[in-house]
Amino acid sequence: MVQDLSITREQIDKVDSQIVELLEKRLDLALEVAKYKSETGKAIYDKEREQQKLNKLGGLAHGEFNSKSIQEIFTQIMSVSKRYQYRAIGDQDHSIEKMYEQVDKLNITPETKAVYAGVPGAFAEGALAAYFGEDVMSTNVKDFAAVARMVSEGEADYGVLPIENSTAGFVNGIYDLLERYELSIVGEQMIQVNQCLLGLPGTDISDIHTVFSHPQGLMQAKEYLEDKNWKQVSMSNTALAAKKVKEDGDSSQAAVASERAAKIYGLQILNPKLNVSEDNTTRFVIVSKRKEYVKDANKVSISFSLPHAVGSLYNILGHFIFNNVNMTSIESVPVSDKQWEYCFFVDFQGNLADNDVKNALKGIMAETENFQIIGCFYSER
């Protein structure tokens, strides 16, 4: 005879109450472990010890399904315990605070040198002017790598790099440059992007056979261009595409670039709006070789690598949830010299001086490889 459901539920409720009581007791014991490790200088995270525990606990269960279930449950229990321990200890060694210096404001003067990729009329130039104003010493270079190199070698104080577009997504290679040249994000500037079709004065759209632009520009105009049987040629910058059309003097060529570029290079606007999205915005980051952040910063950017293993990313992201830290974006790229391992780039709301942020970062730093704080900066979104 099948037992009445209400009785079964009462029994489950009783077992659940016992589990809660035991879990709270376990957390109290975990706190004692944290205190001991803090006093003796031992790390909270002991990967070998955890695996031994999981193997032992799985062996206590009856049957393969129960064994795997118990190991999964205890993986989460131990993850929660670690987060509780990191939170209890805090940043006692000030390792997070030592990574970056808090300043009242960035040191920007008329002698400040800022660099962007492309030529006058590029959206990056607009981002530079919007962030720094017209009084700084601005210069332009051929590509993004040159921007990073100049800042890294001290030839420029700040660089302006596009990192994400609301329509086309993340810009390939920017995070790699920040890591390779050990640069920090110290600021952010949003630029509304309106892509136009530009040609020589008097050009008829029916004469066009080739269109030039940055890959992001071509992607943002994809809906318009897919109806045209034109050859699409990628260039390092939208304004450079406009410059090429002007210099080549060929009416069969057109460029996808800004209205500003049309004015600078004397081109005709053949179509004033090619955007797929009405709200097409590019996020530019301001980079520096100095590890500093302004005191009113409200966003943090980090990177770390993880092996290709079940639950590895899930467990790391739990540090954000546990500490009430809101993640705003995540991007992953393969680690070049390690097969099936990935480097993750994460942005989240907060300031390096916040205790919740420091607690989350302590745990992530302990449980990942190649951990880096890429920047802490003020963001309008």
Please provide a written account of the structure:
Among the domains are: 1-89, Chorismate Mutase Domain, subunit A; 196-271, D-Maltodextrin-Binding Protein, domain 2, CATH 3.40.190.10. The protein is 42% helix and 26% strand. It has helices at residues 5-40, 47-60, 64-89, 95-99, 123-132, 144-152, 174-180, 215-220, 222-225, 238-248, 259-265, 312-322, 355-367, and strands at residues 101-103, 113-117, 137-141, 158-165, 169-170, 184-192, 196-199, 210-213, 231-234, 253-257, 268-271, 281-288, 292-294, 299-307, 327-334, 341-349, 369-377. The strands form four sheets. Strands 2, 3, 4, 5, 6 and 12 form a six-stranded mixed beta sheet that branches. A five-stranded mixed beta sheet has the order 9-8-10-7-11. Helix 2 (47-60) packs antiparallel against helix 3, helix 3 (64-89) crosses helix 12 and helix 12 (312-322) runs antiparallel to helix 13. The radius of gyration is 27 Å and the shape is elongated. The termini are far apart.
Produce a short descriptive summary.
The chain has 381 residues and is of the alpha/beta class. Among the domains are: 1-89, Chorismate Mutase Domain, subunit A; 196-271, 3-Layer(aba) Sandwich (D-Maltodextrin-Binding Protein, domain 2), CATH 3.40.190. 42% of the residues lie in helices and 26% in strands.
- The CATH superfamily of the domain at 1-89 appears as Chorismate mutase
* Strand fraction: 25-35%
Uncertain stretches: none
Count of runs of 4 or more consecutive helical residues: 13
Question: How is the CATH topology of the domain at 1-89 named?
Answer: Chorismate Mutase Domain, subunit A
Global Rg: 27 Å
The CATH architecture of the domain at 1-89 can be named as: Up-down Bundle
Largest sheet: 6 strands, mixed
Please report the distance between the alpha carbons of the first and last residues: 61 Å
pLDDT average, as an integer?
92
E-strand count: 17
- Secondary structure class reads alpha/beta
Please give the share of residues in helix: 40-55%
- The CATH C-level name of the domain at 1-89 is Mainly Alpha
Question: What coarse outline follows from CA principal-axis ratios?
Answer: elongated
Element-level helix/strand string: HHHHEEHEHEEHEEEHHEHEHEEEEHEEHE
